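subagent[fold] <- orchestrator: predict structure for attached chain, return tokens only, no commentary.
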Amino acid sequence: MEEALIQSTRSHRRSLDEEAKKGCWERAPASPASAGAQPLAILQEMIQTACIPPRRMFESVICTLAVQPLLFEAALRSMWLMELGPCTHAPCANVTNAIVKGALRAVSLHQEDAEMHTAATWRALGIVEALRATSGVHGESEGSLSEVIEACLRKCSSREELRRVQACVTQALQDHMRLPDTTHNALLDACERFGDRQECIDLVSMMRERGWSPNPKSLLSLYEWCVEEQDMDGAAYLEEELVKSGKAEYLISLNSQKC
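subagent[fold] -> orchestrator:
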């Protein structure tokens, strides 16, 4: 019985290799759904015949399909089949990273439709949230996660949407993921855009505790906001942060260039 399963696995793997050689995954096809369905169907057939595909077979299919926006849906279905089907393979770094990056690439399919483009951007965050909920990962690469977060921050049109992104950032930090300064600065700018001054100050404090600091432009803008609103405590804290982080000299140089 074991030998029969091995032979069946090898046979299906050859089928996948033959499909790849034909190039059906590696170019934009006339019928993207059917092209993506071919390798997915092979995986499903193996499972239905009690021949569980090995992890490396899933990885090959998912990573290859996810590269193309038109085939992303098939890649996503393959990943859920890998993780939630009878296989229950734990997700690996290559797969989760490919899916997160693929979700971002799929957004490009809607460049001409602003509403669909926004929906696809938020869907990418939804996929990140689903990965975290089902497997405890956001996508192994902090770079991929930060790209999704920053894209959604640019699309934020309400406090509710901002809270959703903040929750993702908080969870990532609790999972000891290091997000780049650009992500924290984008979050700070979004908080300022929605008029939440104290939340901006709290975010600066949190960044400082973790060894990061906003860029000088964001700090100066927030400092001026505190002064305008006569929030002297907030202004004093931000002034101290400017000095501690060594940004004061940079800001002085900018002001001197204007004179």
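orchestrator: received. Logging for downstream: The longest helix spans residues 114-135. The mean pLDDT is 77.
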